[in-house]
Design brief:
alpha/beta, 2-enoyl-CoA Hydratase, Chain A, domain 1, Lyase 2-enoyl-coa Hydratase, Chain  A, domain 2, six-stranded mixed β-sheet, 11 helices, 10 strands, globular, acetylation, delta(3,5)-delta(2,4)-dienoyl-CoA isomerase activity, ClpP/crotonase-like_dom_sf, lipid metabolism, fatty acid metabolism
Length: about 280
């Protein structure tokens, strides 16, 4: 019997298929908007899944029919956000805010640093933090009803927990489209998100998105975990490196990982036309 998954207040964890974990943002009555405790819970969830050998691929979606996440819970932030705190010395206030921002950044970065591939299943409202989370994932799928928005300029700030750093990377550069949606905070729909390459597939509804995501995750989870985690690592290592630097990095990585029994097992299964199985990593 598989070990029980830990329980969290604002995230629901399940295992819908072997080696596949499903994380649901679980605050549907508030459109899955984030407030204080949720940030650190999200980091704890993905830190746990990153090192769980029984997990090979992760799905993240929003509970309820209306939203993946509507972003920041502005009402809650207006009451408790450190931005509102008063300090006599501006430098000390700035230092406190810097630590606060870095802490929130680390919570979102837990998705991108997760050793397992993470697939975002987006529907309904996908505002603000939804883009931060989505760009930290490896694959993004969405429902036809999804409405996206880099919302932060509408609440008086530059997005500071991931979007402005990751969206240009995801889109292949600092394009006119990236600057337009970030500067204007205009909505864009699923068709536009697919056309520009922000998502890889658009499905008719949320149920179809979850079904498609699970199918992709199950396929990935059936592969060698050595190969999958290595592929994610090497692809992510291309950021900020030249081709030559990344080739060198890949050679060093595979000089260790090619010694895995998974290589022989995968090749042997291919020759015998059977499905291979792999040990946990």
């Amino acid at each position: 019997m598989a070990p029980a998954l830990p329980e969290f207040k604002f995230f629901h964890l399940s295992m819908p298929a072997e080696y596949v974990a499903h994380v649901e943002i679980n605050r549907p009555d508030k459109l899955n908007a984030f407030h204080g405790p949720m940030w650190h819970e999200m980091r704890a969830v993905f830190d746990y899944l990153s090192f769980d050998p029984g997990v090979r691929c992760v799905l993240i979606s929003g509970a309820g029919p209306r939203a993946f996440t509507a972003g920041l819970d502005v009402k809650s932030a207006a009451i408790s956000d450190p931005i509102q705190a008063q300090a006599a010395d501006p430098s000390r206030k700035a230092n406190s805010l810097r630590h606060y921002i870095l802490e929130l950044q680390s919570c979102v970065s837990a998705l991108s640093s997760c050793q397992k591939p993470v697939i975002a299943l987006m529907h309904g409202y996908a505002y603000g933090l939804a883009i931060d989370i989505g760009t930290a994932c490896d694959i993004r799928l969405c429902a036809k009803c999804t409405r996206f928005c880099v919302k932060e300029v509408d609440i008086g700030l530059a997005a500071d927990v991931g979007t402005l750093s990751r969206l240009p990377k995801v889109m292949g550069g600092l394009t006119s489209w990236v600057k337009e949606v970030c500067l204007s905070a205009r909505e864009f729909d699923a068709e536009e998100a697919y056309r520009v390459g922000f998502v890889s597939k658009v499905l008719p509804n949320k149920e179809d998105v979850v079904r498609e995501g699970l199918e992709i995750a199950t396929t990935i989870a059936g592969k060698s975990p050595v190969a999958v985690q290595g592929t994610k690592n090497v692809l992510d290592a291309t950021k900020g490196r030249t081709v030559e630097d990344n080739l060198s990095y890949t050679a060093v990585w595979n000089s260790a990982m090619l010694q895995s029994s998974d290589v022989e097992r995968a090749m042997g299964a291919g020759l015998k036309k059977r499905t291979p199985t792999f040990e946990k990593l």
